[in-house]
Amino acid sequence: EEEITELCNEASTLASQIKTSFLHLNNLRLLCELCEEQNEKVQFHAMKETYQVLEMIIREKPQYHAAFVYKKADKTKESTKKAKVDKDADEQISEFLSLKYTDFLEILLFNHIGNKESSFQIPALKMIMRFLLLEHQVSVKALNKIKDPSVLLPVFKSTIRFIQAIISTILQGSDPKKSLILMSYPSLLEVIKKFFHNYDDLRFYMLQSIVKLCKQRKNTTDKEVTDKFVLNVFQLMHRMPTPDEVESFYVHDPEKLPLLVSPPKKKVESFADLYQSGQKRKRKEVQAENTEEAVKQLANVFKVENHSEAFQNAWRALLRLPLSPLVYKQVLLDMPQHILPYFPNPELLGDFFKDAYKMGGMSSVLALQGLFVLVSKYNLEYKDFYRDLYALLEPSIFLVKYSGKFFELCRLFFASSYLPEYLCAAFCKRLIRLGLKAPPPAYLPVLALVHNIIASHPQLLALLHRPPKLSTGGVLMVKEREPKLYNQGADPFDMEEPDPAKSNAQQSSLWELKALREHYYPVISRFCKTFEKPINEHKDLYEIKDFLHQTYESEFQTQITKKRKGKAVPITFESSGKLFSAEEHTESFPTWDFN
Known about the structure:
The protein is mainly α. The protein has helices spanning 2-20, 27-34, 40-60, 75-79, 89-113, 121-141, 153-172, 186-196, 200-217, 223-237, 258-261, 271-274, 278-298, 304-319, 325-339, 350-357, 362-378, 385-391, 403-413, 421-434, 440-456, 484-487, 512-516, 522-528, 552-561, 582-588. This is CCAAT-binding factor domain-containing protein.
């Protein structure tokens, strides 16, 4: 304990000496070493002191602003002895500061932010983000009087590299074995989102970094590392806000960078420039075009349409990677409301949903939801949508935990009154037929769904009551029975036909409702009565979610607590608590004492 206190005091002393005089600048080397001590208390104390020293130098020593630019650490520089004859004192100090600044950033990034074994991810992230801001402010301040926007290119590129390094460390760390899973660190994830979701410029560069990292990850063969990376990317982009206007900036504030927002007009070429040699002039034009294009790209961060494009590119890059079942389902859940509306070209995801449908299970259901949104809102042409939906109507659909979600989506799929009659008839018939074998609690939403479909499509009322046909073979138009097969109950509906158009559902009837009317489960029996009454298309439709929580236990509780009409049936006598009542004791055993 004494040694720990001693090391903490040493860190404070070293920092205090640097703040007092630059003669002690070499103390930065010792502070960086203390930041890598094994004891966590010493580590944190040294980190805090080093951060304060570097922040003070950045703020108060503008002559060294060139030293505070993020770059990857070059370990060969420190060991290489260069001649100091040609360098003045300021250059040597600047070089030393640059080296130590880079070392400290590497410690924060790789020892803490990207390391699951560290306890200081959040403080390290806050320090890094503060350095990102200070580094940019100092660099821009030094160039505030220059009117050429191309001068800002190195500053912007340095900031973007810094952000890319932060995002790369968060998502994959320096060592795949020690990299963290963001889902397991909710507090850290919250702080990350506070920066990279709330600030438009940080979010824009983060999305660009994700595209770049996903392209690199495509060549990785390690499945475990890829799964971890994909999960982290999804957590980082999950429910990301997509504002209509770009107005919140952390680093690149447009008010402080008017040269980029509205660059000056191109100067007219002088007479001398026009008469330069062809090759020389062409080379200058190419350089000017490249610089102009680079400046335009930097200004993309201030345009809303570029943010939407970056959002789309990041999601598409992620979806090209192999997704784990957990991420796949969550992406499919988020797609209709939180992702597709913000895509400039959402129809590009049609193939993704088609592939997801082939996976089966819950993925198929959610994929159909996404396809329905693309078909109904974005004019995607997908002729087999309802045929694929029809194929999911199997007895097993009632036995899975997502059956309620499936029937809720079915209500959405059949909300339109423009769907053809044969299609609605086939779905109603198949759903009702499945009810003959389905578990009662899971089947209740189906009855509500069929009722809603019939209410929305009045032409289906013929399925509920199909009177005997008039015979046209005789002299008189009289009601006669159909041939024998009709009397014997033959149903033209083909349950095995995968195509709803060929199932002959329109020639059938919902005779199964009559059978379900005698069902042992009281709720189903009662609900089937509603089909015997006139169905009003203008009446409010049933909410499928109201029928999802029915279970055997809930029905049992309903039955035993239900108030019944008339006198209660006596099932036991009223106990007196004694062998004989007071009356029996007096009449039959007056002299006996039972106490």
